[in-house]
Amino acid sequence: MWHEPPPYESAVDRAIREAAERGAFDDLPGKGKPLPQLDEDELGWVRRWLDREGVSPEMLLPTPVQLRKEIDRLPQTLTTLRREADVRDAVAELNRRIAEHLRHPSGPRIPVRLVDVERAVEQWRSARAALLPPPTAPEPERPAQIPRRRTWRRWWRRRS
Q1: Predicted model pTM
Q2: Mean pLDDT per 10-residue segment, the chain (160 residues)
Q3: CA angle, residues 99, 102, 107, in degrees to nearest 5
Q4: CB-side exposure of 61: number of CA atoms within 13 Å?
Q5: N or C: which end of the chain has fewer CB within 10 A?
Q6: What angle, 0 to 180 degrees and rounded to 10, lies between the N-to-C axes of helices 117-131 and 63-79?
Q7: Among candidates 104, 120, 109, 118, which has minimal Cα distance to 71?
Q8: Distance of alpha carbon 155 from alpha carbon 160, whole angstroms
Q9: How many Cβ atoms are within 10 Å of 120's Cβ, its own excluded?
Q10: Minimal CA–CA distance to 102: which of 93, 94, 112?
């Protein structure tokens, strides 16, 4: 298999040669199969790692870009919430992370502003009102039918 060793052999080369001579590589699981096709670009391994680990590609973006994207998606995110308190909590959490970034900026200098809580709540209310069916007007109550009173006259007429 191996020809004579080169005049200088590193420790790694020697370990590989000795393992091959012992037959350590003879029954490996992928033996005789082609190597997996490599992507044309140099970042294909990153996409495969993201897919395998279940990580969103947005996690690789700089912090200000992540925050700006989250601010842009905020109206759609808030429509899934049912209570106003939950909306306020979600906006407060986003504002906390924005404030943290503003205190200790990292990445490119991209302006990121805090979200106005009252404006977000108002947008949530209007979006929620558009999604909910309009309230139906209650049917007017029908006047209760007054039972006919029997009068003595009718009774008297029948008897005669």
Answers
A1: 0.57
A2: 70 91 86 74 84 91 95 94 94 96 92 95 90 73 68 58
A3: 130
A4: 12
A5: C
A6: 40
A7: 120
A8: 9
A9: 20
A10: 112
